[in-house]
Amino acid sequence: MSSTSSTLIRPIEEPASVIERKADTRAVASASTAVDRGRAVAWKIFKPAVAIVAFFALWEIAPRVGLVDDVFLPPLTTVLSAFRELVVGGQLAQHLGASLTRALTGFAIALVFAVPLGVAIGWYKPVAETLNPILEIFRNTAALALLPVFILILGIGETSKIALVVYASTFPILLNTISGVRTVDALLVKSARSLGLPSYRLFQKVILPAAVPTIFTGIRMAAASSILVLIAAEMVGAKAGLGYLITASQLNFQIPNMYAGIIAISIVGLVFNGILVTVERRLSRWRVSQ
Fold this sequence. Notes:
The protein is mainly alpha-helical.
């Protein structure tokens, strides 16, 4: 009886050829999946590059075939040659250093000032009711419209330029911080309070982490604004800086140098934004893990 039972429950063994065929099928499927993933990644990288390459190709070809006057729009290779000469000669480093010093100083001051103020306005209703009227006035006043005021009060030196950057950078950070704090999930706040978290721990563990994505949106907007208004301010009154380089090159009819300065500004903006995106991802890593 026992031998019969063992015979009945003995598993059916597949032939070796069938096992090998299944293993080959799985290997082929795995390889196919890897190839598909590789193609998807390659296309994801290639697709944005197409527009950039097409733009650069058009820039190079259009002046050479006479679609535009090469005096006013030199070919890309001519501009890149001028860019290289500015780098080798040290002029670009000088102007870039001056602009970065002003932009980073003003941006840092705005960041330190706007985030705590935004948290206070977003969380405490009396503070919001007191400050909202003045915020509504200044948030609708363009920074460049106040440039003459800053120059009259603070002079044409570094102080007025940094103050203008502070003004332009403050409101994107401030408004997005207010929005981020006010839109924190109420359930998270109630849960934290039910656990007996004190106010400072509530801000540290719940409010600020939940508001980080919105705050960083404002920070990235402020970074772009700081560069834009600074370049405009340097065009008006400065002896160094990328804005000064562009204006001086235009006045001296050094058109390739002018475009080289514009390219330098674009590179600075891309690097600045990339750094902020990286920091945002690190600070928001907890959201990905949820």
